[in-house]
Amino acid sequence: MPTKSSTDRVDALLHPTIEETYDPQAMIALVPIHADQKVADIGSGPGWLTVPLAKYLYMGTCYAVDTDEKMLEHVREQGKKAKLGNIETVVSQENSVPLDDESLDGVVFSSVLSEVFRHKTLLKEGFRLLKKSGWMAIVEWLPADAKIKVGPPASKRLVQQELRESAEALGLKTLFSRQLSPHRYIIVARK
Fold first, then answer.
1. What counts of helices (H) and strands (E) characterise the chain?
2. CB within 8 A of 140, min separation 6: which ones?
3. pLDDT in tens, the chain (191 residues)
4. What are phi and psi of 118, to 5 degrees?
5. How many CA atoms lie within 13 A of 191 on its CB side?
6. I want to staple 22 with a disulfide (CB 3.0 to 4.6 A). Which of 60, 75, 83, 181 is the partner?
């Protein structure tokens, strides 16, 4: 959901150093996900997290949500290659997702909140989509010095405690908040 050109974004997101910063299975193992749930990967990009989520949700649905149709086209291609029929793609606006209120069991924001202009607005949108007792997983970049080699610049990275407080201000209860990998942290919360 960044403001970069589509081609630049595809190149950046498909570059292997981004994917190497954490294993999607490590995130999936930490969230209260069940195989029959409806879960949205908001800011899905090319689907490198959507496809593993959809594999886990074999009796449910995984929504790949992104502002860029080219990204969603790539998600559909990856879903076909993996022989998955439970991925639905949704074109959104930066802070507005065209899904019904309280329609999802889970919402995942993976490295997207640091890319948008109003991350609290997008966080609120994710909250709107969650059913009562639904869960939210937020994966973001750890603070870094100016010599970072992967991820957004230090000035774009969100402070873990502040992001956690923003989620709690919406009414989410943090289940846990910790470092996920050498480059990322995760916050898991429930409505």
1. 7, 7
2. 109, 111, 113, 114, 157, 158, 160, 163, 184, 185, 187
3. 444 455 555 554 444 455 556 889 999 999 999 999 999 999 999 999 999 999 999 999 999 999 999 999 999 999 999 999 999 999 999 999 999 999 999 999 999 999 999 999 999 999 999 999 999 999 999 988 767 778 888 889 999 999 999 999 999 999 999 999 888 999 999 99
4. -120, 80
5. 20
6. 181
The pTM for the full model equals 0.88
How many other CB atoms sit within 10 Å of the CB of residue 99?
20
Which of 174, 147, 173, 143 has its CA nearest to residue 159?
143
The 10 Å Cβ neighbour count of residue 66 is 25
Tokens of 40: 């949205």
Give residue for tokens 């998955």: 84
In this structure, which topology does domain 6-190 adopt according to CATH?
Rossmann fold (3.40.50)
3-state secondary structure of 178: strand
Closest CA to 112 of 11, 178, 184, 29: 184
Q: Which residues have CB under 8 Å from 80's CB, separation 6+?
A: none
According to DSSP, residue 36 is labeled T
